[in-house]
Fold these 2 entries.
Entry 1:
Amino acid sequence: MSLGEFDLIARYFTRPARRAALGVGDDCALLSLTPGMQLATSCDMLVEGRHFLPTVAPQHLAHKALAVNLSDLAACGAQPLAFTLALALPRADEVWLAAFSHGLFALADAHDCELVGGDTTQGPLNICIGVFGEVAPGQALLRSGAQADDDIYVSGALGDARLALEAFRGTVALAGDAVARVRVAMEQPQPRVALGVALRGVASSAIDLSDGLLGDLGQVMRRSGVGAAIDADAVPRSADLAGQPLAVQRECTLAGGDDYELLFTAPPSAADTVRTAAAKAQVAVTRIGRIQAAPGLHLQDANGQTLPQVYGSFDHFRT
Ligand code: ADP
Ligand code: MG
């Protein structure tokens, strides 16, 4: 590398510590938690060719790498505090690094989440971010809390990231302006941190949608020991996706993956509180079904007709 490892870290990934007691530069970072709070932590890795296309702009890649991690904090209702960045780079390309660092800190600052450390090495492009957040004991939203008769909601609109992927693969036809719009969904998802925080004490369970609605809902069902009935036609989608054949709409909304919206449950008595939380977080939420005591998934259309369950979830070792 022309630019040395330490210069690279100093130039692109070091900023004065803010909330952290100690940031980048020593063997460990030191974080001061609000007394009595629990630390929520998660990490997610992005691998070229697996999670992103080689053509993605570096600022968008950085955004997404952090966004998918913030989305995990959101799903727990945790308030972001800090993150670490482990980066393998083929070469120290300063134009690339400047754009990457710009995209990274733009999203980090929007959520007041501080970069406190990491690791940098030469190798095939690989980005692994670890996030830290805090939540009061007993307040974290879990996958395991769904109860029979709870309503099932999702935030935002689902399926556009998958539609973008299919457009790039050439399996669907999309107009140029539509491609630009769905590409934003794929490359720059907005983690629903404010919604997760607003749903503390309101939602009975939550998960963020990374592997497709039905697969992720299956996680909630398993962990909660319940079943669910979903109205496939109620799942919110963009106008771009709604212009596609119904089979494409269903595949993208039900099994698309990479949505980074929240799926959550709440008792019917909390419906107004859910609306208030969504309004506070300035995110649309839509009721798409109901939790059932009997195990298994019942998928139906708007007319109540049962739909065949042909929608799998994304599995890195099966696809
Ligand atoms: P060590 O060998 O003790 O793990 P390193 O030499 O790898 O430390 O890193 C030096 C400092 O720079 C550490 O504080 C580390 O957390 C930080 N660091 C390394 N890479 C990054 C990065 N990509 N982003 C932020 N901080 C980083
Ligand atoms: Mg050390």
Entry 2:
Amino acid sequence: MSGNGTNLQRIAEYFANNPDVEIVNVVCNNPQAYAIERAKNLGIPVRMVGKTEFNTPEFTQEMADLNLDLIVLAGFLWKVPASLIQAYPRKIVNIHPALLPNYGGKGFYGEHVHEAVVAAKEPFSGITIHYVNEVYDSGEIILQAYVTLSEDETPDSLAAKIHKLEQAYFPVTIQQLLFWS
Ligand code: GRF
């Protein structure tokens, strides 16, 4: 988590009545993130981490010891160290607010993505849920969902459309990965 935590909120609510799913930890790198408040309200422990610690073997080991079924990145902006990716092959997923491979990679996050899509007058945008590998936004794609841009689309209006897609598709995709794959 680095930010608002709307995906966290939605995912937690989606699985709230499912005894087979436990969100063990919210790992957060930004002390200002509203996601922290949300996690507290949801009763989920928060593990704050700084950049140096995040990249240590000890942090990877701590995560490995949790023996997680899935690590979900939702608005997490740092590159995940190779050691952590290797500890959890095909078990770390990210959601990106555009149709990868376009509008992905370093610098394409948050409103920057929607500004670029609108500026290019793209007919479509959407979301990409993908596995995380060593290169930003380039892991194997699990699911994409599309929206059409209107003539008068703005970055803000597009962000709202994308947000709805995220809310609709991320929890169910997580469920699929956990139980139906
Ligand atoms: C989402 O738009 C997601 O696609 C991107 O970061 C944003 C996170 O929003 N990776 P939130 O913190 O879940 O509200």
